[in-house]
Write a structure and sequence with these properties.
Blueprint lengths: L3 H4 L1 H20 L7 H23 L2 H22 L7 E3 L10 E3 H22 L8 H12 L4 H10 L6 H28 L5 H21 L1 H8 L6 H19 L5 H14 L3 H25 L3 H4 L4 H15 L13 H12 L3 H12 L5 H23 L4 H15 L1
Antiparallel strand pairs: 1-2
Helix pairs in contact: 2-3, 2-13, 3-13, 4-12, 4-13, 5-6, 5-8, 6-17, 7-8, 8-17, 9-11, 9-12, 11-12, 15-18, 16-18, 17-18
């Protein structure tokens, strides 16, 4: 029906148009309390039936798959770039809400909470192991890291937007989010390599050598700053180099048999430690959030046939089980009650429970290796969407964090 070259643009035009519609809907109906990506996924759910049928009929399935992989890779790059573990020092809990609150070692507290979260995730994963079709032990381990994951690319920007990024609790939240994301993604990659290790020993070895050498060189010599001087006066050269780094590491990671998101995630960490100009990364972030991210989330939504899914009422219970599982495993965050009130800790608990990227990746792995069926994977993703919506709403409305923000700002002004 379409010529091969001109037809390539059809899926992109459709998806970008729908992404624009989602932004218009959020603005017109004042839905700013909803995360944009959630609206985009919901649009994908609505159009899934006819979109998938038309893409298959017109022969564009390969283009859509490419859009999905590229979008996810670009988002994982930003997640890797946001990783910041420069929080080892012990600091005074200046924004603590309880009298007599002492010092908080941010990293130690965050790591302890995250470790307990993984333990509780293991327990919950074990309790619902009856849904696994094969190799229940492997399925339990996979699900443990799904429950223990956090969507740092969503959580960290929310903290900045709400003025909490520089508070102690804000740094605890971001550290837990970064920890959970890097550990979960690292585990998924190791799992993918282990499941497919027989054929690719040489490439796996090459991957780790290249990553290690790149990381050491870039961190030691701060190549980004050197490159900025070389590229001075040459428009967008640094941006092109960063994109090449992303694509190369994604290619190498996928070639090694690992999950391709590892390559993108590690590319973000490399670029951060290379210390490229913040303006370069900021301009690239705008492109990613403006184009690649919306394309990815809408396509992610189209991969779930919502009408077929809920034709069986029992699937709704599976979504509910996952929804509460995502929240329950974050119970260790209640340890922060030592310093903060329940009205602050509870929304923190919900925000840290927000996850979507790892469930999508885990669903791909689980289906590829017959650990669970498609219904299980879709329920895992849908529940993640619901938690993300709830977490965003709690952190956008004034209650219950409004009083905390007001108190911290007044204290900060008095100190100044």
């Amino acid at each position: 029906m379409f010529e091969q070259v001109s037809g390539f643009f059809v899926p992109i035009i459709i998806l970008l148009s729908l992404a624009s519609v989602s932004s218009i809907l959020i603005s017109v109906f004042k839905l700013k309390f909803l995360p944009t990506f959630a609206v985009e996924i919901l649009i994908g759910l609505v159009i899934a039936y006819w979109f998938n049928a038309d893409m298959a009929r017109w022969g564009f399935t390969g283009v859509v798959d490419g859009i999905y992989v590229l979008g996810l890779s670009m988002m994982m790059f930003l997640s890797g770039y946001d990783v910041d573990f420069d929080v080892f020092r012990e600091v005074r809990a200046v924004d603590a809400e309880k009298k007599g609150a002492g010092h908080i070692n941010i990293f130690r507290t965050s790591f302890f909470v995250f470790a307990l979260t993984l333990l509780s995730s293991l327990v919950v994963a074990f309790l619902i192991n009856k849904y696994f079709a094969n190799d229940k032990y492997l399925g339990i381990i996979l699900l443990t890291f799904v429950f223990g994951s956090t969507f740092a690319a969503m959580v960290v920007p929310i903290l900045h937007n709400e003025g909490l990024a520089e508070t102690v609790i804000g740094r605890i939240i971001s550290t837990i989010a970064n920890l959970s994301e890097i550990v979960s993604i690292g585990f998924l990659t190791v799992l993918m390599i282990m499941l497919d290790v027989d054929r690719k020993y040489a490439v796996i070895f090459l991957l780790f050598v290249v990553l290690l050498v790149l990381y050491r060189l870039i961190r030691r010599f701060k190549i980004g700053k050197v490159f900025d001087k070389i590229a001075e006066g040459i428009d967008h050269l640094a941006t092109r180099v960063i994109i090449v780094i992303i694509l190369f590491l994604v290619f190498l990671s996928d070639l090694a048999g690992g999950e391709y998101i590892l390559g993108a995630f590690f590319a973000g960490m490399l670029v951060r430690h290379a210390q490229f100009s913040p303006k370069v990364v900021e301009s690239l972030s705008r492109i990613i959030y403006g184009i690649f991210a919306p394309l990815f989330f809408i396509v992610a939504g189209t991969r779930i046939d919502i009408f077929a899914f809920f034709s069986d009422f029992s699937n709704l219970w599976l979504v509910i089980i996952f929804f509460f599982a995502y929240l329950i495993v974050e119970a260790p965050i209640l340890l922060l009650l030592k310093w903060y009130n329940l009205g602050t800790v509870l929304p923190t608990m919900v925000l840290i429970a927000c996850t979507i990227i790892v469930p999508i990746a885990a669903g791909h792995i689980g289906l590829s290796h017959n650990l669970f069926d498609e219904t299980f994977s879709q329920a895992m993703i849908l529940a993640g969407i619901l938690v993300c919506i709830l977490g965003t709403i709690l952190f956008t409305i004034e209650f219950p964090f409004g009083h905390f923000r007001k108190k911290f700002r007044e204290q900060d002004e008095s100190d100044g």
